[in-house]
Amino acid sequence: MNFPLKLRKYALNSLLLIASLLICLLIGELILQAFLNPVDYLEPKLIADDVIRWRIEPFSAGHDDWGYRNESVPDSVDIVTIGDSQTYGANVLKDNTWPVLLEKLLQERVYNLGLGGYGPIQYFHLLKEKAFTLNPSTVVAGFYYGNDLQDAFLMASKYEYWNHLLSEEFYQDSIWSYPDLNVGRSAFLVEIRKLLLNRSILYRLLRELLTNTIYATVKSLLGEADEITVLKNPKSGIKTAFAPPWQIQFIDQSVPAISEGLRISLQMFQEMNQLCIDKNIGFIVLLIPTKESVFTHHLLKRPELKHARTIKYIISNEAAINSQVKNHFDVHHINFIDLLPVFQAAIDSTVIYPPSIDAHPNKLGHSIIADTLGKYLGYVESYSSEQN
């Protein structure tokens, strides 16, 4: 006789527990949304695009109505920055990205057109279609040697809109292909998980915590993966990692597609420079090195490191590319800033990269970029005023 009553009581208590848990989660989410910037934690919705590969849906995950990492789209600005994830600010808070820090440093309005997965062809397109509508006095384009050459070739070979940029000997087929926007995601509850990543800061934080915990556990049990090289120097406090077998494919000039990507990149920057000259807008290219090249002096002294030969090959290839780029820019009167010596001078006293294989600078790295660019722009301004 008492069994149905106990069952109802158990069911009621279970419902109350679930309801209480949901209310707590909701309150926690509301608190996080009130104190944290959604653009720093939520995963935006990407939309496939036949011209620029992809773009972020307007207003998605705290982005502006153009789909970029700004509060809003202003009528005009002083400086526009264009680039990939190195400019977007992957893995750092929005307020710690170099475009935002540059804005604070110069007390001028800066608009960031950076987005991960972009390359020189997208930079060229965004300059014409977006940047010029903001009437800037200066445009800064980031050129990341880590993957921009490959990105340029892929855009020209895979997207019909840009096929005309390819040399005659190249065709649409290539050794690479662009992944689906959902690649790497389990099919289990994928739509629900995508919705939570796009809307819930709490879910994103819990997911990241779980992922990091699992990674740390696997690492402690099995050690580093075969493709990872770890660099430690207790005297200077250096502790970071690299993935040379992965990085080499993006910068190996013996691969014709990489050489073609470099040619296309130089063409895009040359055309961007001319477009800016025609509109009386300053144009600067920020040369962003790979993590391997930044640590050249430390890595080449350690021949016993895993993948030492590959690392040496990466560094030598990038040095040749950097020399070719700077010579081309000098000939065509394109302003540039080479961040390699700046970063190399900093690493013995400042931690500018995370300890993982992540090649994106941390907030200290971004502050160095902003400071370097700010000094350059200040010098150009004072130099120009002296000439007048």
From TrEMBL:
Domain of life, per lineage: Bacteria
InterPro entries: SGNH_hydro_sf (IPR036514)
SUPFAM superfamilies, sorted: SGNH hydrolase (SSF52266)
Molecular function per GO: hydrolase activity, acting on ester bonds
Gene3D superfamilies documented for this protein: SGNH hydrolase
The name this protein goes by in its record: SGNH hydrolase-type esterase domain-containing protein
UniProt organism field: candidate division LCP-89 bacterium B3_LCP
